[in-house]
């Protein structure tokens, strides 16, 4: 991982990758476009969509004895294991499945705040509402104090030094996101966990990884956390499900379940095999990228290698987008463009740039990009969803630019030229 400015995929691999996604360069109804809003919902793997559709065709109940039913049950059980062991890097614990990642977050927060003794819970100021509002809701319900850790306005992240000022021996839960979905800053969860547990060794700690999971390896064993979640629709997959890992001690808390089921089973009602089939395709896909670099390895090793390659390629795209080339200036060098919460060192960043164009309001800028065939989105303080977050970063808003690893440097160059044109014509 020692590439401070990232490492692009070899050309041959890059081409193969792009072909596997739906509608990367063209919307079938609206024509050519650059989809740079992957933090709002990522480009999808064709195989995920096909696998989900395929398994939706079977009416068989996964609880029956018939061959198809047994096959569907096996698919769900196998993929539950793979999500835990391969995607989350867990050796124990349990899987929470819900319709959305937000629901898994409310689920985890509720279990801990309502059952674990303590008079306060701690969360960061830049959390997505799913984590922030869950803490507020359950703290109110349980009569506990909610403490909010401010952001570092220079980096767009949360500093471990700041977190430990809010944690004490009466804290029942600490919840810090793995990476910001506005600035792209990756939090040092490992250090946050160690420092917070130095204050309270048995502290429950969870993390929202919806932004970070599609871009980097997750390893709950290494991080020693109690809960973490992701949303397949932001992870090259499908809508309609959210997944979370919870530690054994969280799974042991009293939770909704059928009485006859094991304590570690959170599944309630009939499962959706198509969602698990789509997850299998995501894991297969990342393993295939890994196989390009290493042979003869376990599925977990292949997955980790694939994720590492994705992470480095995305870092190289971020560097390219910020710095540009001799011929095409990067975002940092285009007259009239500001990159917010920009850090020189990009090793702690996901592939996101938060930008503004002088003299243009954010909504107008998004529309202008749309006219040029580029999909990006604004996060502004007039929206109830992003007000708290952008203001915590010292901003009134930002255009969020979030390409994906299936993009290449030509896509980034196209975007840079369009950005320069928009900034220039706005000045004239
Ligand atoms: C960082 C982060 N957390 C949580 C969520 C919520 O995901 P979902 O809409 O699947 O509940 C989002 C979605 O935008 C997000 O970006």
Give your account of this protein's structure.
With 428 residues, the chain is α/β, with parallel strands linked by helices. It has 2 domains: 11-45 and 312-427, Alpha-Beta Complex (Aspartate Aminotransferase, domain 1), CATH 3.90.1150; 50-282, Aspartate Aminotransferase, domain 2 (3-Layer(aba) Sandwich), CATH 3.40.640. The chain is 41% helix and 14% strand. The chain is built from 14 helices and 15 strands. The chain has helices spanning 11-19, 46-56, 67-87, 101-115, 129-142, 160-163, 189-199, 220-223, 248-251, 273-293, 299-323, 362-371, 387-392, 409-427; strands at residues 26-27, 31-32, 34-35, 94-98, 120-124, 145-149, 171-175, 204-208, 227-230, 242-246, 337-339, 353-357, 374-375, 377-380, 397-401. A 7-stranded mixed beta sheet has the order 4-10-9-8-7-5-6, sandwiched between helices. Strand 5, helix 5 (129-142) and strand 6 form a beta-alpha-beta unit. Helix 2 (46-56) runs antiparallel to helix 10 (273-293), helix 4 packs parallel to helix 5 and helix 10 packs across helix 11 (299-323). The longest helix has 25 residues, at 299-323. It is globular and about 70 Å long. The termini are far apart. The model has no long low-confidence stretch (mean pLDDT 97). Pyridoxal-5'-phosphate binds at residues 100-102, 128, 130, 177, 181, 208, 210-211, 231, 242.
């Amino acid at each position: 991982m020692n590439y401070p400015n990232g490492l692009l995929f070899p050309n041959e691999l890059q081409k193969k990758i792009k072909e596997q996604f739906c509608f990367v360069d063209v919307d079938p109804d609206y024509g050519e476009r650059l989809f740079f809003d992957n933090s709002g919902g990522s480009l999808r793997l064709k195989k995920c969509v096909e696998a989900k559709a395929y398994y939706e065709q079977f009416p068989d109940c996964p609880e029956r004895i018939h061959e198809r039913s047994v096959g569907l049950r096996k698919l769900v059980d196998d993929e539950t294991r793979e999500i835990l062991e391969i995607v989350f890097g867990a050796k124990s614990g349990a899987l929470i499945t819900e319709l959305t990642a937000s629901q898994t977050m409310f689920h985890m927060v509720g279990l801990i705040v309502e059952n674990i003794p303590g008079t306060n819970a701690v969360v960061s100021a830049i959390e997505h509402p799913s984590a922030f509002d869950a803490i507020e809701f359950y703290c109110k319900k349980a009569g506990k104090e909610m403490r909010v850790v401010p952001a570092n306005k220079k980096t767009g992240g949360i500093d471990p030094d700041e977190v430990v000022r809010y944690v004490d021996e009466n804290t029942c839960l600490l919840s810090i996101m793995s990476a910001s979905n506005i600035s792209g800053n990756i939090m040092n969860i490992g250090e946050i966990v160690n420092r917070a547990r130095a204050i309270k060794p048995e502290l429950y700690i969870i993390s929202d990884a919806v932004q970070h999971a599609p871009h980097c390896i997750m390893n709950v064993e290494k991080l020693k956390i109690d809960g973490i979640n992701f949303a397949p629709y932001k992870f090259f997959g499908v809508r309609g499900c959210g997944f979370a890992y919870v530690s054994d001690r969280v799974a042991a808390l009293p939770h909704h379940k059928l009485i006859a089921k094991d304590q570690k089973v959170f599944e309630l009602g009939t499962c959706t095999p198509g969602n698990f089939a789509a997850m299998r395709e995501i894991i297969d896909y990342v393993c295939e990228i890994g196989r390009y670099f290493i042979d003869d390895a376990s599925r977990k090793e292949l997955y980790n290698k694939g994720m590492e390659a994705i992470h480095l390629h995305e870092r190289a795209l971020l560097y390219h987008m910020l710095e540009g080339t001799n011929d095409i200036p990067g975002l940092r060098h285009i007259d009239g463009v500001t990159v917010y919460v920009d850090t020189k060192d990009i090793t702690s960043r996901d592939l996101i740039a938060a930008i503004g164009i002088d003299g243009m309001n954010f909504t107008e800028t998004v529309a202008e990009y749309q006219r040029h065939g580029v999909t990006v989105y604004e996060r502004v303080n007039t929206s109830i969803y992003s007000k708290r977050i952008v203001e915590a970063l010292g901003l009134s808003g930002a255009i969020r630019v979030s390409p994906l690893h299936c993009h290449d440097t030509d896509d980034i160059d196209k975007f840079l030229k369009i950005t320069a044109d928009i900034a220039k014509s706005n000045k004239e």
